Amino acid sequence: MNDLHALLTLSTVHFIALLSPGPDFALVVQNASRYGRKTGFYIALGLSFGILTHSILSMTGVSYLIHLHPTLFSLVRFAGGSYLLYLGLIALYGTIRYWHSSNTQANMSVQSATSSRRIAFTRGYMTNLLNPKALVFFVSLLSSLIPSDMSLPSKGAALVILWSLSLGWFGLLAWLLSTAKLQQKLHKVAKYIDGLCGLLFTSLGTLILYMSII
Description:
This protein has about 210 residues and is an all-alpha fold. It has one domain. It has helices at about 1-20, 25-35, 35-60, 60-70, 70-100, 105-115, 115-130, 130-145, 150-175, 180-214. Helix 1 packs parallel to helix 9, helix 2 packs antiparallel against helix 3 (about 35-60) and helix 3 runs antiparallel to helix 9. The longest helix is centred in the last third of the chain and has 34 residues, at about 180-214. It is flat, with a radius of gyration of 18 Å. InterPro entries: LeuE-type. Keywords: Cell membrane, Membrane, Transmembrane, Transmembrane helix.
């Protein structure tokens, strides 16, 4: 009964956290609105596996050790900040290129390359995995809600819950943003969404990089 209560609490807290806007949310919005449902789904799949990886590392104590070690945690923050900065610069470059290029075919080829399944999955996975806030969140969440004496099946259920809720939420978001009517409207403002997401990723990446070296 205690295990069931812990799992229900874990589900509630994690779902509330998923609803909070952040890099994961922005990544799904940016890609699903510009590249459509398939790309949005693979972004969501990558994010959910990033969350699953964080959950496993936290449950096994690896993330806790990284968090306790200042040098290792700084390296994680540096890698995460660098990757977010990279995503931001790509988005800003695409926005600038859109405004200045009259070559539609070139823009279409960039879109085709960016929207491949492998790139979309990797982008989602790395964005979540390298997010130092995600590492701290899951260390805190699982250490407080998953007791060390919890049964192995219950711990497995916790991992399934965290992964499935993540995939369900981000997948639903990608689906809602890629309906036919909404896609027509979003394509008209895609350049603005790219620009805003680019500014967000660049700002967050720069901030995390700064925090990792001070």
